[in-house]
Amino acid sequence: MSAQTATSTTEHRRITGKLIIATHNKGKLVEMRELLAPFGITATSAGELDLPEPEETGTTFRANARIKAVAAAKATNLPAFSDDSGLAVDALGGYPGIYSARWAGPEKDFMGAMTRVNELINDLGATTPEKRKAHFVSALCVAWPDGHLEEFQAHVDGTIVWPPRGNKGFGYDPFFLPDGYTTTFGEMSSEQKHGLPPLGLGLSHRARAFVKLAEACLGK
Fold it and tell me: Is 130 left (phi over 0), alpha (psi -120 to 50) or beta?
């Protein structure tokens, strides 16, 4: 369960005061607020401010995270924190990847999206666990109004399971069994999935990227 991290600068800027969470995704907002809570950061979301959602035209998770953070920072004149994340399935050449949310459609039908992924990999003969490998990726970006950026990326490896298990989390969580565990993300409590040490293991892709962000920009 390795993680990879990238930063945009060598001299990091500390996050203080108010912060905009550049998301309209309620499930993602809950996780991001829970990650920020121990650091005393006051966070308001782009959705709560009725900011328009920028078009995600990037070809990578990092590029799309940057688009969202920069748009929110410019609109509010405050630092903005964004995540772009998704499920990359090995048998599908990394898809749905950056299109993970779009595969669920405007109605956010993730059960339909999971069914589609499962059918596609079954059609390829990927019916055993070793052929159903996947990883969740999270790219985080903090953008300041003056153009300063901090960027981090991480992933967590696992296996696609069928049928989906659990009703916790959001998105593709019930579909994903992280390596070394017997419960899917959809069966885990928030503390198990993305709780940070010492209370949690920082297991999820978003938590792993956030640990690096916290070390660089939150003083821990």
Answer: alpha
Q: Which position among 84, 146, 157, 173 bears the catalytic label? A: 84
- Using CA atoms of 119, 121, 126, 127 in order, give the dihedral in degrees to the nearest 10: -20
DSSP of 113-167, one letter per residue?
HHHHHHHHHHHTT--SGGG-EEEEEEEEEEE-TTS-EEEEEEEEEEEE-SS---S
* pTM summary value: 0.90
Q: What is the DSSP letter of 187?
A: G
Domains of the chain in sequence order: 18-217 (3.90.950.10)
Annotated catalytic, 179? no
Six-digit token pair at 79?
């630092």
Q: What is the pLDDT of residues 95-127, one digit of tens each?
A: 999 999 999 999 999 999 999 999 999 999 999
Q: Which residue carries 């001299």 as its tokens? A: 11
Give me the pLDDT at residue 1, please: 35
